[in-house]
Design goal:
0% strand; 3 helices
């Protein structure tokens, strides 16, 4: 749970900004998306390798290799 302590001087806009920053830093939405459906470990690894190969290919293209 994200808790924000409000000072007497803090406006609603400042409190919302602080909440949004904490929300994004704690990766709440990522965690919720992961929990919606179960993905096998082998599928996760396969996707991770696929992304790594793509990144490596792009990096090599940028370097002119």
């Amino acid at each position: 749970m994200i808790i924000i302590n409000l000072d007497g001087k803090m406006s609603i806009e400042q409190a919302l900004k602080k909440y949004k920053m904490k929300f994004s830093k704690h990766h709440v939405m990522d965690e919720l998306r992961e929990r919606t459906e179960h993905v096998k470990e082998s599928v996760k690894k396969r996707e991770e390798l696929k992304r790594a190969k793509y990144r490596e290919k792009k990096r090599r293209e940028e370097n002119g290799e």
